[in-house]
Amino acid sequence: MDIPSFQTKYEQLWQKIVAKYQNPHRAKSIGQLFNTLIPYVLLWGVMVYCLTISYWLVLPIAFVAAGLLVRIFIIFHDCGHGSFFKSQKANHFWGFITGVLTFTPYQYWRHEHSVHHSHSGDLDHRGVGEVWTMTVDEYLHASRWMRIKYRFARNPICLFIIGPTILFLIVHRLPLGPSGRDGHKSVHLTNLSILVIAVAMSFLIGFKAYVLIQLPVLMIAASAGIWLFYVQHQFEGVYWERNAKWDYVTEALKGSSFFKMPKVLQWFTGNIGFHHIHHLSPRIPNYFLERCYKENPMFQQIKPITLLTSLKSLTFRLWDEQHNRLVGFGYLRALKYS
Questions:
Q1: Domain count, the chain
Q2: CA 191 from chain center: how many Å?
């Protein structure tokens, strides 16, 4: 069933369908805090011990710790949507705590992410909480310097290694953007909390040891997180449209991917692969997304992308408005001979 027919048939039903999954389950939320935060802290202890033997023992463990940090970010993400606990005080409290652990100011990010959900796939409202993407026409009419900057920004090394590190280590430390007083305050409180933890860890294990552990864990998690976000919105067949024609339901179901991953990766990423359902209803806690998918065949009609097919997203650089598709820079060379 194609998206237009889906929208016509279910436009009166989808809100009722997702409503029964939107109520947070306190025990599940608390259980997720325990099975994520405790192993993360324990792995830190293991890595500290391994430092006394060899740093090469630390790095493999850092990958597992980074996976847990991605899962912590998903908890943080749900708190930001008000979907992890029924109590908004609990959401804000744990959102702040997990935000400190992931080096992300909670209220600041919450505002930016709400803009992303409101305008994802809207070509007239790009720029906030998204990966910078130009249209073919914009690129062709851009200055030489702008093209150089854009090519650098879209290079995979910059996009998935350099960029994420700068974002989480530096950009999130700065109170930029129209997030209001609460957003700027959250940046300062998060920075202060990170500093307190860094000082405390420096006294306990030494500053060098703290950096040798924290930096690779954060870098790996940041790269994985940006890759997930990228693939969820830049994939073959994605829906992007100008504001006048933009539609919320179509954007959610065709503009956000269903990223089917192996069970172990699905666990570490907190079911965020069911991103089409998440964008349709951000109030569904991550632990109910798979259930929503399995119990409603209409969501199963969205073609999944896999780890293998997701690699094609690496070739995408620009949006071709004429043919409504993502293309690579090679497409520009083809235009010259068309």
A1: 1
A2: 21
Q: What is the dihedral of CA 201, 204, 209, 215, to 10 degrees?
A: -10
Confidence of residue 180 (pLDDT cuts 50, 70, 90): confident
- What CA–CA distance (Å, rounded) separates 133 from 316? 10
Asked if 93 and 174 count as a contact pair (C-beta separation under 8 A), the reply is no
CA dist., res. 259 & res. 314, Å (int): 15
pTM for the structure as a whole: 0.93
- CB 140: neighbour CB atoms within 10 A? 12
- SS3 for 26? helix
End-to-end CA distance of the chain: 34
Containing 326, the helix (H) or strand (E) segment is strand 325-327
Q: DSSP alpha helices (H): ranges in the chain?
A: 3-10, 14-19, 26-51, 55-80, 88-101, 106-119, 136-140, 144-154, 156-157, 163-169, 180-205, 207-233, 248-254, 263-268, 275-280, 286-295, 297-300, 307-310, 330-336
Q: What is the Rg, in whole angstroms, of the alpha carbon atoms belonging to the chain? A: 21
Neighbours of 245 (CB within 10 A): 9
Q: Could you give the strand order of the β-sheet that contains 325-327, starting from the edge strand earlier in sequence?
A: 134-135, 318-320, 325-327
The whole domain housing 249 covers 3-336
Q: Which tens digit of pLDDT belongs to each residue from 210-241?
A: 999 999 999 999 999 999 999 999 999 999 99
Alpha-carbon gap, residue 7 to 245, rounded angstroms: 14
Cβ neighbours of 186 (radius 10 Å): 25
- Residue that has been written with the tokens 């864990």 in this structure: 217
Which pLDDT tens digit goes with each residue over 117-142?
Answer: 888 899 999 877 889 999 999 999 99
Place of tokens 């093209």: 147
